[in-house]
Write the structure tokens for this entry.
Amino acid sequence: MLGAAALDITQDNLDVYHPRNPQVSEYHRCVEAHFEELEMVWEDRYERFYGFWRPYVMEVIDRYLECGDLHCGFARVKCEDCGHEYLLPFSCKRRHPS
């Protein structure tokens, strides 16, 4: 079992918002660079092993690539006490389907 020291949970860490930046991850860059190619070659290379290309795959990938992108929507968050503001990008992990 991990202790609080191993998880580095301190009051100082909880007071600072650290936004995600999915666009810098290797996985995000790989998906962005090669997903269209995968879709084009799926039938020839993978369909007999994994089945037909399912349409919902495009929806999931599009939502993933838009996740955390300020150009795709955001909320402005403002502290009523000190007036500090920041932009919170919308996430692909939604509470309802859309």
About this structure: The two ends are 39 Å apart (CA to CA). The CA atoms of residues 27 and 33 lie 10 Å apart. Residues 1-6 have pLDDT under 50 and may be disordered. The chain has one domain: 19-89.
